[in-house]
Specification:
The chain has 7 helices and 4 strands, in the order ααααβααβββα. It is an alpha+beta fold and 158 residues long.
């Protein structure tokens, strides 16, 4: 009888993760670009960058976890949770006066109605589109003059 030797998907992911870190430990120059490249490869393996992998990546690459967490927030293509889309709602001075917090709450509700891991909803200090406030961004798409009652239909496009 032949033995079934299928590899466990988690084992395969861990092997790939270790290979990525090994490569960047040996060939990396310690730059931010190198770290971001490693994070993108890790995300390709898991679909996001798991918290426990942030810790190990920091330890092995000689950087603090806080730096990795900041890079994940800085680069829209990197994500720390297995969501499909990132929603950012401006609550800066202009948007805040024109209903930004209400839009944020509407986005959180619409995201929860869609399923908890489909959207990551966060606030942003300013999306730099002040003349068209209030503003909301889904991935890299900016929506202007947003009203709370329109948020669900905007997110329905994704």
């Amino acid at each position: 009888m032949s033995e079934d030797r299928r590899e466990n998907p988690q084992d395969k992911q861990e092997t790939e993760f270790q290979e990525i870190l090994g490569y960047y430990e040996a060939n990396g120059d310690g730059s931010q670009d190198t770290l971001v490249s490693a994070l993108r490869e890790i995300q390709d393996v898991y679909g996001f960058i798991p918290p426990e992998k942030i810790q190990e990546t920091g330890r092995r690459m000689g950087v603090k976890e806080g730096l990795i967490e900041k890079l994940i927030k800085l680069y829209p293509s990197l994500k720390a949770a297995p969501y499909k889309h990132r929603v950012r709602v401006c609550i800066g001075p202009n948007c805040g006066k024109k209903g930004g917090p209400s839009i944020l709450e509407a986005a959180k509700k619409a995201a929860a109605d869609r399923g908890g891991s489909y959207f990551e909803v966060t606030s942003s200090g300013c999306l730099k589109h002040c003349p068209t406030s209030p503003n909301m961004m889904v991935d890299n798409d900016v929506y202007n003059h947003v009203k709370p009652e329109n948020v669900a239909s905007i997110l329905g496009k994704y």
